[in-house]
Specification:
The complex is a heterodimer of chains A (112) and B (110). Chain A is mostly beta strands and 112 residues long. Chain A is built from no helices and eleven strands. With 110 residues, chain B is mainly beta. Classes of the chains: A mainly beta (112), B mainly beta (110). At the A-B interface, strand 5 and strand 10 of A face strand 4, strand 5 and strand 10 of B.
Protein backbone atom coordinates (compact mmCIF):
# COMPACT_ATOMS: atom_id res chain seq x y z
CA UNK A 1 0.00 0.00 0.00
CA UNK A 2 0.99 3.63 0.01
CA UNK A 3 3.08 4.74 2.93
CA UNK A 4 5.69 7.30 3.71
CA UNK A 5 6.53 6.95 7.37
CA UNK A 6 8.91 8.30 9.96
CA UNK A 7 10.95 6.42 12.54
CA UNK A 8 10.82 8.95 15.41
CA UNK A 9 7.72 10.89 16.38
CA UNK A 10 9.64 13.39 18.59
CA UNK A 11 13.25 14.53 18.44
CA UNK A 12 14.76 16.76 21.12
CA UNK A 13 18.12 18.44 20.43
CA UNK A 14 20.32 21.02 22.07
CA UNK A 15 20.55 24.40 20.37
CA UNK A 16 23.60 24.45 18.15
CA UNK A 17 23.68 20.69 17.63
CA UNK A 18 22.90 19.01 14.33
CA UNK A 19 19.51 17.33 13.85
CA UNK A 20 18.72 14.31 11.74
CA UNK A 21 15.15 13.41 10.87
CA UNK A 22 14.50 10.13 9.11
CA UNK A 23 11.79 8.87 6.79
CA UNK A 24 11.06 5.56 5.07
CA UNK A 25 9.06 5.18 1.90
CA UNK A 26 7.53 2.07 0.44
CA UNK A 27 7.19 2.60 -3.30
CA UNK A 28 10.29 2.27 -5.43
CA UNK A 29 8.44 4.02 -8.27
CA UNK A 30 8.55 7.31 -6.38
CA UNK A 31 10.82 9.79 -8.10
CA UNK A 32 10.48 13.01 -6.15
CA UNK A 33 10.75 13.67 -2.41
CA UNK A 34 10.17 16.81 -0.41
CA UNK A 35 10.69 17.89 3.17
CA UNK A 36 8.20 20.29 4.70
CA UNK A 37 8.27 22.21 7.97
CA UNK A 38 5.01 22.98 9.71
CA UNK A 39 4.82 25.42 12.57
CA UNK A 40 1.83 25.61 14.87
CA UNK A 41 -1.16 27.24 13.17
CA UNK A 42 0.50 27.36 9.76
CA UNK A 43 0.51 25.33 6.60
CA UNK A 44 3.49 23.20 5.55
CA UNK A 45 6.47 25.19 4.30
CA UNK A 46 8.81 23.80 1.64
CA UNK A 47 12.34 23.18 2.90
CA UNK A 48 14.17 21.15 0.29
CA UNK A 49 13.49 18.53 -2.36
CA UNK A 50 15.39 15.79 -4.14
CA UNK A 51 14.77 13.69 -7.21
CA UNK A 52 15.44 9.98 -7.39
CA UNK A 53 18.41 10.43 -9.72
CA UNK A 54 20.29 12.15 -6.88
CA UNK A 55 21.70 10.89 -3.57
CA UNK A 56 22.27 14.18 -1.82
CA UNK A 57 21.19 17.77 -2.04
CA UNK A 58 22.23 20.70 0.08
CA UNK A 59 20.49 23.92 0.95
CA UNK A 60 21.11 26.59 3.51
CA UNK A 61 21.86 24.67 6.76
CA UNK A 62 19.88 21.68 5.45
CA UNK A 63 20.89 18.55 3.59
CA UNK A 64 18.65 15.81 2.26
CA UNK A 65 20.03 12.32 1.70
CA UNK A 66 18.29 9.68 -0.37
CA UNK A 67 19.13 5.99 -0.14
CA UNK A 68 17.11 4.22 -2.80
CA UNK A 69 18.50 0.80 -1.90
CA UNK A 70 16.76 0.82 1.48
CA UNK A 71 14.09 3.38 0.54
CA UNK A 72 15.24 5.84 3.15
CA UNK A 73 15.24 9.63 3.24
CA UNK A 74 16.80 11.89 5.83
CA UNK A 75 16.88 15.59 6.59
CA UNK A 76 19.93 17.01 8.31
CA UNK A 77 19.75 20.42 9.93
CA UNK A 78 23.07 21.98 10.89
CA UNK A 79 23.47 24.17 13.99
CA UNK A 80 19.84 23.74 15.02
CA UNK A 81 18.17 26.95 16.20
CA UNK A 82 15.07 27.59 18.33
CA UNK A 83 13.27 28.71 15.18
CA UNK A 84 13.70 25.21 13.78
CA UNK A 85 11.25 23.85 16.36
CA UNK A 86 8.31 22.52 14.35
CA UNK A 87 6.85 19.34 12.89
CA UNK A 88 8.71 18.01 9.88
CA UNK A 89 7.08 15.93 7.16
CA UNK A 90 8.58 14.03 4.31
CA UNK A 91 6.40 13.77 1.24
CA UNK A 92 6.57 11.61 -1.84
CA UNK A 93 5.45 12.27 -5.38
CA UNK A 94 5.18 9.43 -7.84
CA UNK A 95 5.47 9.47 -11.59
CA UNK A 96 2.25 10.29 -13.43
CA UNK A 97 0.65 11.45 -10.19
CA UNK A 98 -0.10 14.96 -9.04
CA UNK A 99 -0.61 14.21 -5.37
CA UNK A 100 1.86 14.41 -2.54
CA UNK A 101 1.84 11.51 -0.07
CA UNK A 102 2.85 12.66 3.39
CA UNK A 103 4.23 10.77 6.33
CA UNK A 104 2.88 11.30 9.84
CA UNK A 105 5.57 13.78 10.89
CA UNK A 106 8.34 14.23 13.45
CA UNK A 107 8.24 16.95 16.05
CA UNK A 108 11.59 18.67 16.53
CA UNK A 109 12.13 20.35 19.90
CA UNK A 110 15.17 22.57 20.34
CA UNK A 111 16.40 22.97 23.91
CA UNK A 112 18.05 26.33 24.74
CA UNK B 1 3.08 39.21 -3.62
CA UNK B 2 0.38 37.45 -1.62
CA UNK B 3 0.85 33.78 -1.02
CA UNK B 4 -1.94 31.23 -0.83
CA UNK B 5 -4.89 32.53 1.15
CA UNK B 6 -7.77 30.55 2.64
CA UNK B 7 -11.05 31.49 4.25
CA UNK B 8 -12.46 31.21 6.76
CA UNK B 9 -9.72 30.59 9.33
CA UNK B 10 -11.95 28.63 11.66
CA UNK B 11 -15.38 27.11 11.27
CA UNK B 12 -17.72 25.17 13.53
CA UNK B 13 -20.49 23.08 11.99
CA UNK B 14 -23.00 20.51 13.17
CA UNK B 15 -23.22 16.94 11.90
CA UNK B 16 -25.24 16.69 8.71
CA UNK B 17 -24.59 20.25 7.64
CA UNK B 18 -22.73 21.36 4.55
CA UNK B 19 -19.61 23.54 4.40
CA UNK B 20 -17.74 25.52 1.72
CA UNK B 21 -14.09 26.43 2.10
CA UNK B 22 -12.30 28.89 -0.17
CA UNK B 23 -8.79 29.22 -1.53
CA UNK B 24 -6.98 31.85 -3.56
CA UNK B 25 -3.76 30.59 -5.15
CA UNK B 26 -0.42 32.30 -5.18
CA UNK B 27 -0.15 34.86 -7.97
CA UNK B 28 0.71 33.17 -11.27
CA UNK B 29 -0.30 29.68 -10.14
CA UNK B 30 -2.94 27.80 -12.09
CA UNK B 31 -3.29 24.57 -10.14
CA UNK B 32 -4.97 24.06 -6.78
CA UNK B 33 -4.82 20.97 -4.57
CA UNK B 34 -6.77 20.30 -1.40
CA UNK B 35 -5.57 18.27 1.56
CA UNK B 36 -7.15 17.16 4.83
CA UNK B 37 -4.92 17.08 7.90
CA UNK B 38 -6.24 15.35 11.00
CA UNK B 39 -4.67 16.29 14.32
CA UNK B 40 -1.23 14.76 14.70
CA UNK B 41 -1.22 13.37 11.15
CA UNK B 42 0.26 14.29 7.82
CA UNK B 43 -1.93 15.90 5.16
CA UNK B 44 -4.02 13.56 3.01
CA UNK B 45 -4.68 14.43 -0.64
CA UNK B 46 -8.33 15.10 -1.47
CA UNK B 47 -8.15 16.28 -5.10
CA UNK B 48 -6.44 18.63 -7.51
CA UNK B 49 -7.98 21.15 -9.92
CA UNK B 50 -6.44 22.37 -13.13
CA UNK B 51 -8.14 24.31 -15.93
CA UNK B 52 -11.37 24.22 -13.93
CA UNK B 53 -11.45 20.42 -13.97
CA UNK B 54 -10.73 17.83 -11.28
CA UNK B 55 -7.49 16.29 -12.50
CA UNK B 56 -6.85 13.73 -9.79
CA UNK B 57 -8.72 12.53 -6.73
CA UNK B 58 -7.62 10.83 -3.53
CA UNK B 59 -9.53 8.29 -1.44
CA UNK B 60 -12.32 10.55 -0.28
CA UNK B 61 -16.08 9.95 -0.65
CA UNK B 62 -18.31 11.85 -3.02
CA UNK B 63 -19.41 14.05 -0.14
CA UNK B 64 -16.23 15.96 -0.90
CA UNK B 65 -16.49 18.04 -4.04
CA UNK B 66 -14.76 21.04 -5.45
CA UNK B 67 -14.69 23.74 -8.03
CA UNK B 68 -12.12 25.93 -9.70
CA UNK B 69 -13.02 29.31 -11.13
CA UNK B 70 -11.58 31.05 -14.21
CA UNK B 71 -9.36 33.18 -11.94
CA UNK B 72 -7.89 29.89 -10.58
CA UNK B 73 -9.41 30.28 -7.11
CA UNK B 74 -11.08 27.20 -5.73
CA UNK B 75 -13.73 25.96 -3.35
CA UNK B 76 -13.98 22.75 -1.37
CA UNK B 77 -17.49 21.59 -0.47
CA UNK B 78 -18.29 18.91 2.06
CA UNK B 79 -21.84 17.62 2.41
CA UNK B 80 -23.48 15.66 5.22
CA UNK B 81 -20.69 16.45 7.66
CA UNK B 82 -19.48 13.73 10.01
CA UNK B 83 -17.60 14.13 13.27
CA UNK B 84 -14.62 12.54 11.52
CA UNK B 85 -14.48 15.42 9.06
CA UNK B 86 -13.05 17.62 11.81
CA UNK B 87 -9.59 18.57 10.58
CA UNK B 88 -7.38 21.27 9.14
CA UNK B 89 -8.12 21.70 5.44
CA UNK B 90 -5.13 22.86 3.45
CA UNK B 91 -5.04 24.35 0.01
CA UNK B 92 -1.87 24.25 -2.07
CA UNK B 93 -1.22 26.03 -5.33
CA UNK B 94 1.40 25.30 -7.94
CA UNK B 95 2.58 26.02 -11.45
CA UNK B 96 4.28 22.94 -12.90
CA UNK B 97 6.12 22.13 -9.72
CA UNK B 98 6.47 22.96 -6.06
CA UNK B 99 3.25 23.16 -4.11
CA UNK B 100 2.84 26.20 -1.87
CA UNK B 101 0.48 25.72 1.05
CA UNK B 102 -1.92 28.14 2.63
CA UNK B 103 -2.48 28.43 6.39
CA UNK B 104 -5.53 26.19 6.29
CA UNK B 105 -9.09 26.28 7.56
CA UNK B 106 -9.74 24.57 10.88
CA UNK B 107 -13.11 22.79 10.65
CA UNK B 108 -14.75 21.46 13.79
CA UNK B 109 -17.85 19.28 13.47
CA UNK B 110 -19.95 18.88 16.62
Amino acid sequence: GESVGLHLPTLSVQEGDNSIINCAYSNSASDYFIWYKQESGKGPQFIIDIRSNMDKRQGQRVTVLLNKTVKHLSLQIAATQPGDSAVYFCAENRRSSYKLIFGSGTRLLVRP
Amino acid sequence: DAGVTQSPTHLIKTRGQQVTLRCSPKSGHDTVSWYQQALGQGPQFIFQYYEEEERQRGNFPDRFSGHQFPNYSSELNVNALLLGDSALYLCASSLDGEQYFGPGTRLTVT
